[in-house]
Amino acid sequence: MAVFPGAALIAGAALVAATLPPTSSVSSTSFASSASLAAGTSFASSAPSASAAQAVVTAVDVPRVEGPLPGAPPGDPASPELPETYPWLATDADLRAVGYVEQEFHLSGNADAYSATGELLAADVPYRTRVIVRRPVSQAAFNGTVLMEWQNVTAGYDLDALWSTEQLTRAGYAWVGVFSQAAKAIRAPAAPGLLGRLRAGTVLAVGASQSAGRLAVYYDAVLPHIESVFDGYGQIVGPAPTRAGAEPVFQVLSETDVRSPVRPPDTERFRRWEVAGSAHSGWHGYSARVPLLARDLGAPPTYTCARPPFSRVPLHHVLAAAYDHLTRWARRGTAPPTAPPLEFAADGTKARDELGLARGGIRLSQVAAPTALNTGDNSGETFCVLFGTHLPFDQAQLDRLYPTHGHYVAAVVRADARNVKAGYLLPGDARQNLIDTRP
Length: 439
Hints:
It is a single chain. Helices cover about 25% and strands about 20% of the residues. The protein is an alpha/beta fold. Strand 7 (about 200-210), helix 4 and strand 8 form a beta-alpha-beta unit. The strands form 2 sheets. Strands 1, 2, 3, 4, 5, 6, 7, 8, 9 and 10 form a 10-stranded mixed sheet that branches. Strands 11-12 form a two-stranded antiparallel sheet. The model is unreliable at about 1-55 (pLDDT under 50). The longest helix is centred in the C-terminal third of the chain and has 18 residues, at about 315-330. The protein has helices at about 5-15, 165-170, 185, 210-220, 285-295, 315-330, 365-370, 395-400, 405-420, 425-435; strands at about 30-35, 65, 100-115, 120-135, 145-150, 175-180, 200-210, 230-235, 250-255, 270-275, 370-375, 390.
């Protein structure tokens, strides 16, 4: 689309808007059921929830799809001619090289609006929204699963917090980013379609931070009243639903997000993983968005934090494994493995080892074979509390931990082998970790 928000006012929130912690605003948000959420529309999935089966379920209308819209990078976002522009925060990855395409659409229709506690507020409310799709070009490269991300709009625009080029394209996922979710358009065999000629077998709803909070409200309060179009839910670095429904729920938290030893138990329909050393908004997302924000806003924001920010522990590696598990859970009923929780000290703070690293949780090789202190904690201005910490060890510390480079490589391989066997890490990411050990 050609119209972008004012750069001066929103640049400071741009990098982390998709991963802000949920606030009390969730409780006053109204939702809608028809083709989207947040802006006043809904969802539809194949299997109704346990409570919905005993109540009147409102069908979800199929939205009108317009597009794909013309325009792709490079272009001029200020041009009045749409074909000369490009989608907001369009990826700078070479998608063509991996057999993918990025497209933008408009969706419109009517929706029923609900309160955050499930009361019907208004019926048949007109809406119009945009959708970004990144997908394989061919059915042969498509794994059959669509990740529909409820994008966070705290900064006043959509931000793709959960898009990770290497992991999603390697596995063959289709990714759909929406301000208001539009899964019915995926389910409906209508033309034009959001996925072109691709046929989706599984549609998963995913959301990070504030969006995870809104998905939780949707699952708990709205889903019992409407047709269900999602096969499973991924609650990333944010709250999870409390209702026991039919669709499986997978919550993955960074170290930043775990603030209490009190946790909901794992069940047949709920899993929770906690990743030691990782941050709510870490280096992976920050470094990917810097060039996009420089392009679309003029300059990325900078931060002055109490300690060097942005944990390098790759939470996205764990998410890649989690998406595969959630897909199998939704398709075949095979639940993901359980994972050890982060440990807490007697005083209520997170337990840490002699290096300052968190104890317990999923321990990727960046924590189990560390070359730096990576934590989920930080402080300072604005969003520093979300970034975690990254403090490289000096050479003396590295020499004490690893007498030779071979000792370090062996420690990385052992940690990754354990995590691959446990189901917390995919072999492709373990291979990349090994490559990264090269001096």
